[in-house]
């Protein structure tokens, strides 16, 4: 690795050292979703790691050191894994601040900038090594549909192993790449292109919004079990290029302390 990459992982490790697991469960009572059978999307039997950057438009380090480190990670890992920025600040009316606050509260993070591998204190190489060597339990896939003011995410989740006495949750993070915003600390200032920014989570109509997952499977689950779930999110007029819109599907469980525990992730690589 280059010196920049070494510093990236060192910097991430330092940041992670200052927070601990929170016993607080963010949001309302967990809800189980029931859906009607429909066409299944093919799901790959594969483990894919997740890496979140936490950034703030008003925090200069987010626009300097952290921005460069995350850009470096995108070059090396974005074609194989799931990387995204959870952003605090005004990015044109998106719901990003609610997503940011929910994660900061639930994981007791110190704020931005920060990094999180597989919803834990791991750097990205550590997360990949641990996850790739583990058995594939479950994965998900999605297809996108667009209206002028809506994004629709059709998902299929499939289990590749029989499990018992477990609850599983699915979150669809809506990501828009290269949103132009005023980022403190970045040399481009008001014309900074924000990379892979989470603008909202997909909602299931008729249910309370869940920023850290809807319960989608529970109890004894058979190998080969599949289910579909359709999410939707608001689409801002400035998000005209659908090629810049993607989704991070994150499957999780909950620890006894009410903290989400990472299981798997998926995105459609572009």
List the helices and strands and how they pair.
Elements: H1 3-16, E1 50-56, H2 60-63, H3 65-77, E2 82-88, H4 96-107, E3 114-117, H5 124-132, E4 138-146, E5 150-159, E6 163-176, E7 179-181, E8 192-194, E9 197-201, E10 214-221, E11 226-234, E12 245-254, E13 260-266
Parallel strand pairs: 1-2, 2-9
Antiparallel strand pairs: 1-3, 4-5, 5-11, 6-9, 6-10, 6-12, 7-8, 12-13
How would you portray this structure in words?
- The chain is of the alpha+beta class.
- Helix content is 19%, strand content 36%.
- The protein is built from five helices and 13 strands.
- It has helices at residues 3-16, 60-63, 65-77, 96-107, 124-132, and strands at 50-56, 82-88, 114-117, 138-146, 150-159, 163-176, 179-181, 192-194, 197-201, 214-221, 226-234, 245-254, 260-266.
- Strands 1, 2, 3, 6, 9, 10, 12 and 13 form an eight-stranded mixed sheet that branches. It has a three-stranded antiparallel sheet with strand order 4-5-11, with no helix packed on it. Strands 7-8 form a two-stranded antiparallel sheet.
- It is globular and about 50 Å long.
């Amino acid at each position: 690795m280059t010196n920049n990459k070494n510093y990236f992982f060192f910097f991430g490790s330092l940041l992670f050292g200052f927070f601990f697991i929170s016993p607080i469960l963010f949001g309302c009572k967990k809800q189980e979703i029931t859906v009607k059978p429909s066409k299944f999307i093919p799901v790959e039997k594969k483990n894919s790691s997740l890496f979140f950057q936490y950034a703030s438009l008003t925090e200069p380090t987010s626009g300097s050191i952290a921005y460069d480190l995350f850009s470096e990670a995108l070059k090396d890992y974005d074609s194989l894994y799931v990387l995204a920025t959870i952003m605090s600040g005004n990015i044109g009316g998106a719901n990003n601040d609610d997503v940011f606050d929910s994660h900061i509260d639930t994981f007791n993070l110190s704020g931005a900038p920060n990094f999180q591998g597989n919803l834990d204190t791991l750097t990205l190489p550590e997360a990949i090594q641990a996850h790739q060597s583990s058995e594939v339990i479950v994965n998900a896939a999605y297809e996108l549909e667009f209206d002028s003011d809506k994004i629709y995410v059709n998902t299929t989740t499939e289990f590749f192993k029989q499990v018992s006495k477990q609850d599983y949750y699915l979150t669809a993070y809506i990501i828009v790449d290269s949103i132009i915003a005023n980022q403190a600390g970045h040399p481009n200032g008001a014309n900074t292109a924000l990379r892979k920014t989470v603008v909202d989570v997909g909602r299931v109509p008729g249910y309370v919004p869940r920023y850290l997952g809807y319960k989608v499977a529970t109890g004894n689950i058979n190998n080969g079990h599949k289910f579909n779930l359709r999410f939707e999110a608001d689409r801002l007029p400035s998000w005209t290029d659908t090629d810049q819109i993607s989704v991070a599907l994150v499957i999780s469980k909950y620890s006894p302390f009410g903290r989400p525990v990472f299981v798997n992730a998926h995105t459609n690589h572009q």
